[in-house]
Write a structure and sequence with these properties.
It contains 19 helices and 17 strands. It is an alpha/beta fold. The mean pLDDT is about 95.
Length: about 525
């Protein structure tokens, strides 16, 4: 297999400027993450600790194997909304008793761990990951149920969380609930729908309606313990399978449950040497261009991601704006589709469609590195069949059955986002670099299109076009799209699984590949009709 050669100069002025710009973005994200880690703020955290309780991340740390990694997902969801960044839920993938598990922990210091629409979006994404990758689900529960002021937006999708828990069980994917405090109303169905339940004695309180609601609905007077206490559920209702003495004991029992699952991976796992790349991964913060309009060679990125920088490029002389080829990450064989110069032409789309079919024939996962402005437009390209050729690529992506992993390392615009297996095409995982941008089209192009349409409408009415209005309109639209297309804006909507430090990309992809190999890794038996 060929070895990539790097020509990147880490000491150049451009590299230094890129490194500074990336550092500023990473610092901003670190500050946001620190705020998220602080939960509902110092006062609420102190009150929680005075009750003798652990924080959400402390619970996760105790549950996971010592010194094992935790791949946190969607930490920036709900940022720039009316809700707290992170949506009162910490979730991700970690190792428990040697088993990769999806772990979801309510943060009771944020509005009592109540679920708002973004909490549900995050939770449902976790369920998707569990189903696609055969991951046992461990829920660390302490939640007041739905965030009542937003119930209109949370009620209907909230029902899917209960449906998904029982569907996971029907697929043979274990669901485990460790309950540390209140689990009321809809939150009561999380342990109710789980395969295994552990309640902390004197702490867990699980009921559909608490004492005030019961009094209001039935006139009955009852206390927390007799209505939904841990001991009652262990001795009387049978909802609790295990009664833990305290939170640490609950973690011990949870780990023992996982150890007894007799869990086995279905995928082949790593089969190739997992040599480190030949080039320094530190360069990954300096390679992406400070100016998004300035392209950079994605092969320089691949040289710092792939095992031993080995890369067997497929059709290197055809469709040169998209590099396709074979390599491996942490010993897992992969196929790669990486945008090189941004624009996808007919040749790139045809090459990609063939390559995706080959990957499915070989049962090899695909990695998509996004840095594309879209499919080429214009009279010659339309007449040359850009639509039907782009449709071939989208067809191949849509019907591919091997796992897709995506990283948006630059721009990802228009239908090219779809063709590169963007969020709407169910990639197993999709991550973004801090410099990533994604929208229908770039700000200037979108504002220009609106300007042309408005100008044409004025001419059709026989009116003189207001140039001052046009200038203001274009400025406002460009500013709006600039704000909406950033990595943080898209991540806050849940459109990716998180923004990662470029230097961590190889580690994150390696862990993600380990996750997808929990399930069978098998290609498609057939594809839809390719328009020729």
């Amino acid at each position: 297999m060929s070895v990539l050669t790097s020509t990147f100069d880490a000491c150049s002025d451009g590299a230094r400027a890129n490194r500074v710009a990336m550092g500023e973005r990473l610092a901003e994200l670190d500050a946001l993450l620190a705020a998220f880690n602080g939960g509902g703020g110092p006062k609420k955290v102190e009150r929680h600790r005075k009750r003798g309780k652990l924080l959400a991340r402390e619970r996760i740390e105790l549950l996971l194997d010592r010194d094992s990694p935790f791949l946190e997902l969607q930490p920036y969801i709900a940022h720039h909304t009316d809700f707290e960044t992170g949506a009162s839920l910490v979730s991700g993938i970690g190792v428990v008793e040697g088993v990769l598990c999806f772990v979801s922990a309510n943060d009771p210091t944020v509005r009592g761990g109540a679920s708002n629409p973004y909490t549900l979006r995050k939770a449902l994404r976790g369920h998707e990951i569990c189903v696609a990758n055969r991951l046992p689900l461990i829920s660390l529960v302490e939640s007041g149920g739905a965030d009542l002021p937003t119930q209109a937006d949370a009620f209907v999708p909230g029902g899917a969380t209960f449906r998904n828990l029982t569907r996971l069980s029907s697929l043979g994917i274990p669901t485990i609930s460790l309950v540390f405090g209140n689990s009321t109303a809809g939150g009561a169905y999380v342990p109710g729908m789980s395969d295994y339940t552990v309640f902390v004695e004197g702490r867990a309180k699980v009921f559909l309606g608490g004492p005030p609601l019961v009094k209001m609905a039935t006139g009955e007077d009852s206390g927390d313990e007799e209505l939904g206490g841990a001991e009652m559920h262990a001795r009387v209702s049978g909802l609790a399978d295990y009664l833990a003495a305290d939170e640490h004991d609950a973690m011990r029992i949870g780990r023992e449950i996982v150890a007894s699952l007799n869990w086995r991976r279905h995928g082949p796992g790593p089969t190739l040497p997992a040599d480190a790349p030949l080039y320094d991964t530190e360069d990954l913060v300096a390679i992406p261009s400070l100016d998004p309009k300035v392209p950079f060679d994605t092969r320089e990125v691949l040289a710092r991601l792939l095992d031993g920088s080995r890369y067997d490029e497929f059709k290197p002389l055809y469709g040169a704006s998209l590099s396709t080829g074979w390599g491996s990450v942490h010993g897992h064989p992969v196929g790669v589709l990486a945008n090189i110069q941004g624009i996808l032409f007919s040749e790139e789309a045809q090459k990609a469609a063939q390559f995706i079919q080959l990957a499915n024939q070989k049962d090899v996962p695909l990695i998509f590195l996004h840095n594309t402005t879209g499919f080429m437009v214009g009279k010659d390209y339309e007449q040359g069949g850009i639509i039907k050729d782009g449709a071939k690529m989208i067809n191949a992506v849509s019907n591919s059955k091997v796992p897709h992993l995506g990283v948006i390392i630059g721009g990802s615009y228009g239908a090219a986002n779809y063709a590169m297996s963007g969020r709407g095409y169910d990639p197993r995982f999709l991550f973004s670099w801090p410099n990533a941008q994604s929208s229908v089209m770039g700000p200037a192009q979108l504002a220009g299109v609106l300007s042309i349409v408005a100008r044409g409408a004025a001419e059709a009415r026989g009116q003189e076009y207001d140039e001052a209005f046009d200038k203001n309109m274009r400025g406002m639209v460009e500013a709006q799209i600039e704000a909406e297309q950033t990595a943080l804006a898209n991540s806050s909507r849940g459109y990716d699984d998180g923004i990662i430090d470029p230097r961590d990309t190889r580690t994150v992809l390696g862990m993600a590949l380990g996750v997808v190999h929990n399930a069978d890794v098998k290609g498609a038996d057939g594809f839809g009709v390719f328009r020729m």
